[in-house]
Structure formats: structure tokens, C-alpha cells
From TrEMBL:
<protein>
    <recommendedName>
        <fullName>Deacetylase sirtuin-type domain-containing protein</fullName>
    </recommendedName>
</protein>
<feature type="domain" description="Deacetylase sirtuin-type">
    <location>
        <begin position="4"/>
        <end position="290"/>
    </location>
</feature>
<feature type="binding site">
    <location>
        <position position="178"/>
    </location>
    <ligand>
        <name>Zn(2+)</name>
    </ligand>
</feature>
<keyword id="KW-0862">Zinc</keyword>
<feature type="binding site">
    <location>
        <position position="181"/>
    </location>
    <ligand>
        <name>Zn(2+)</name>
    </ligand>
</feature>
<keyword id="KW-0479">Metal-binding</keyword>
<feature type="binding site">
    <location>
        <position position="140"/>
    </location>
    <ligand>
        <name>Zn(2+)</name>
    </ligand>
</feature>
<dbReference type="InterPro" id="IPR029035">
    <property type="entry name" value="DHS-like_NAD/FAD-binding_dom"/>
</dbReference>
<dbReference type="InterPro" id="IPR026590">
    <property type="entry name" value="Ssirtuin_cat_dom"/>
</dbReference>
<feature type="binding site">
    <location>
        <position position="144"/>
    </location>
    <ligand>
        <name>Zn(2+)</name>
    </ligand>
</feature>
<keyword id="KW-0520">NAD</keyword>
């Protein structure tokens, strides 16, 4: 692994030059980007505020809600969690800064995040691939059909029957059922093998076409934010593979704890040991005119 860049200002200068030279930009992101934007699943203080009953029961973060819960508690959690992280209409300032950074470059987004923050913050929805799903959809738990449904009305119904004191949905009739077969339902995110990926396949094909039709010699810049080792096969490793596949591609890996890049990518990969806020601040700081480098 390459050693992380120690000078954030120097890294910002390199990124500016690489952006200037890039023909296309692929923005990739994991949970670390949304955490930097204020949606940290490991935040115990926020968890205590939103889920006091679950906190009293010994849970300390959203990451811990993988334990089995009774349906009334589970759907109470999902309703509050999804309402908090998915259905705000306001754009997120950090994501807006990232959108401004990309500017008018020909670009795509691929993210493991299921919170819709890219689309809500100015990125074109038809150029965002979310292979892990979307909190904005729900599905049959069996599943009996590849159809998925808008979760906004479901969340509203659950919240209307939610008791913050107990953390439970008090009306059994508010609990979701599959609209097709009447069986159990679940949020349309990749939790297990029953995940319905049908809504995301068209974007996957469009992204594959965008990459596959790139002219020979395309200078592809991959800007990766907050993708660690929880699910490295979704964002982290594909970005490395794409950098190998395109001889003139470059990879910027922005990650405060796991910024390392493969040694064989040499000077075509830049590890940045910082979160997105710090990097974007460095990019916004006054700087001397860059000396563009020539892609190998």
C-alpha cells in the first residue's frame, strides 16, 4: 500500500490538477461520506435522542440494530431512522460542495449509501447507481414479486402510530404487509439474499455503458469518499479495478482511517487521510496556479 499523503494542501493541489485534466469523473462513496455529512450511524448521542427506548434497552448506535427485535419495535425504529435520514427535502451542504467540485465534468455516481443524499443535493438522479438499495423503497420479504413500493406513505403511517416512550408502533394495522401477497414486508436494502435489486439494474446498465463506451485513452478520475472495509466489494475494490482497467485513470481515496491504495497503482492513486469536509476545505483555500501533470 502507498503511504497516505501527509500534506493535505499538496493533495488538494494534485486533485485540482487531476480534475482539470480529467475527461470523465466517477464519484464513489461509502458510509464515511454520509457520516461526514452529519449522518453517522455510530453516533451514540444522536441515537439516544432519536431512540430513547432502544437506548434504555442497551443499544448504543444504529449499527447495533441488527439484533432481532419484535415487529412493533423494528418498524418503530425503521420509521424514525428513515424519516431522519432519507426524507428531508433540504440538500446537504457537504454533498452540495461535492457537486460544485465536479462542476460540468461528464460524471456518474456509484454509492453504497441508501439515503438519497446525492440526488437531494444536485446530482442527476439518472446518473446515480445505488447497488445496496434505497430507504425510499420497500419490498416483499419473500419476495413474491420484483416490484418495490414507495416507502414514504408507509413511514408516515408508522410514525402516526409510533410511541416514543416505548419505541413501538402501537397499532398492529399500521405494520406493513406486502401489497401483492399480503405477506411480510421489509425495506428495500441489501440486508440479505432476499434483496430485490430490480429498481437499480437500469442505472447499473447505464453506468456500464458509460464506462464501456469511453474512448481509448479516456482520462477517468475516480473520487472515492468514505469507503472502508465493511463492504469493500461494493465501492472500494471496484474503484481499484477500474483504475487498473483504464491505463490513464486515476484514483483519489479520501478516508480518515483507511486511505491506503494498492502499490501497483503507484502515482495514479492518491491516498488522502482526511474526511470529505477537511479535503473540501483544503480545495476551497487560496492556492497558487497548479502545474498540471501528464497522465501516464
Amino acid at each position: 500500500m502507498n503511504r497516505p499523503a501527509s500534506d493535505l494542501r499538496a493533495a488538494a493541489g494534485t486533485i485540482r490538477a487531476w480534475l482539470t485534466e480529467a475527461d470523465r469523473v466517477l464519484v464513489t462513496a461509502g458510509a464515511g461520506l454520509s457520516a461526514a455529512a452529519g449522518y453517522d450511524y455510530g453516533d451514540e448521542d444522536r441515537f439516544r435522542v432519536l431512540f430513547p427506548a432502544l437506548h434504555r434497552a442497551g443499544l448504543r448506535s444504529r449499527y447495533m440494530v441488527g439484533v432481532p427485535l419484535p415487529p412493533a419495535l423494528l418498524w418503530g425504529y425503521w420509521a424514525v431512522h428513515i424519516d431522519d435520514i432519507r426524507f428531508s427535502a433540504a440538500p446537504n451542504p457537504l454533498y452540495r460542495r461535492l457537486r460544485a467540485l465536479v462542476g460540468d465534468k461528464d460524471h456518474w455516481v456509484m454509492t453504497s449509501n441508501v439515503d438519497g443524499l446525492f440526488a437531494r443535493s444536485g446530482f442527476a438522479p439518472d446518473r446515480i447507481f445505488t447497488p445496496q438499495g434505497d430507504y425510499g423503497r420497500y419490498q416483499c420479504a419473500t419476495p413474491c414479486t420484483p416490484t418495490t413500493w414507495d416507502s414514504r406513505p408507509l413511514v408516515a403511517r408508522l410514525l402516526a402510530a409510533y410511541d416514543p416512550a416505548t419505541g413501538a408502533v402501537t397499532d398492529p394495522d399500521a405494520l406493513p404487509r406486502c401489497p401483492n401477497c399480503g405477506g411480510e414486508a421489509e425495506i428495500n436494502v441489501r440486508i440479505g439474499p432476499r434483496f430485490v435489486d430490480t429498481p437499480y439494474l437500469p442505472a447499473a446498465r447505464r453506468l456500464q455503458s458509460w464506462l464501456g463506451t469511453a474512448p481509448a485513452g479516456t482520462r477517468l478520475l475516480i473520487l472515492e469518499f468514505g469507503a472502508g472495509f465493511n463492504t469493500p466489494g461494493v465501492i472500494r475494490w471496484p474503484g481499484e479495478d477500474l483504475t487498473r482497467r483504464f491505463p490513464r485513470a486515476r484514483l483519489v481515496r479520501v478516508n480518515p482511517t483507511h486511505p491506503g491504495t494498492p502499490a501497483e497503482l503507484a502515482d495514479r492513486a492518491l491516498p488522502v487521510p482526511a474526511d470529505a469536509h477537511r479535503l473540501l476545505d483544503a480545495l476551497a483555500a487560496p492556492h497558487p496556479a497548479p502545474n498540471p501533470t501528464v497522465a501516464p
